[in-house]
Amino acid sequence: MKAFKVHKGKVAPLHRANIDTDQIVPKQFLKRIERTGFGEFLFYDWRRDQNGQLDPGFPLNHSRHKGASILVTGKNFGCGSSREHAVWALDDFGFRAVIAPSFADIFANNCVKNGVLTIVLSEAEVAQLVERATKHEDYQLTIDLQDCEVRDEHGFSARFQVDEFTRHCLLNGLDDIGLTLQHEREITAYEAVHPAPVSSV
Asked: How many CA atoms lie within 13 A of 136 on its CB side?
């Protein structure tokens, strides 16, 4: 998993509340077994019209937000079913962080396991970021996980909270497998004195 320390990137605003995981990646695209390639299906029903063409009115389709790696959105983002594919779609599309007033717990946990940082800011701060991303061409934010701070070049600065375990995992790029492999020496030593039983079948 890619470590997250300090990230500077373009912002895409999607100021809607209660965006659930089926809106993030619709259920008809969940048949794949690999974790890649879901970016093209992100917000599919909103990004595309009934003919499957990109809707120029949808924020993520605006040329000014092309290449955005930070999504700013409304409260309760990621609600609905537990769907890790939703995080895979965000990550594959290029988002490294999502900023919102609140997140569904399971979705936020899935983000951590996939190296995507979720940042909780107040509704007023989120509204301010949305306004700036709409007003300024090529609007960018710097997210500093080491100091737990979000800032821009126009005077905005806000602190955010993240629990130490989550912060440790993201700073060091550790998913569940990576955490386990930190104890590889102990695991190897245990297996050396506890060999697997031989099957008689």
From this structure: 16
Interacting residues of 49 by C-beta distance below 8 A, sequence separation 6+: 55
Rounded to an integer, what distance in angstroms lies between the CA atom of residue 7 and that of residue 72?
15
Residue 201 pLDDT = 56
Tell me which CATH homologous superfamily contains domain 6-175.
Aconitase, domain 4 (3.20.19.10)
pLDDT in tens, 114-124: 999 999 999 99
Contacts of 107 (CB under 8 A, 6+ apart): 21, 77, 78, 79, 82, 86, 87, 118
Dump the DSSP string for 129-143: HHHHHHHSTT-EEEE
Question: Does residue 87 surpass a pLDDT of 60?
Answer: yes
What is the model's pTM? Answer: 0.87
Beta bridge mates, 10: 140
Closest by Cα among 131, 141, 139 to 15: 131
- Is the pLDDT reported for residue 35 higher than 90? no
Residue pair 80/22 in contact by the 8 Å Cβ criterion: yes
Torsion sign over Cα 31, 32, 36, 37: negative
Q: Answer whether residue 182 shows pLDDT above 80.
A: no
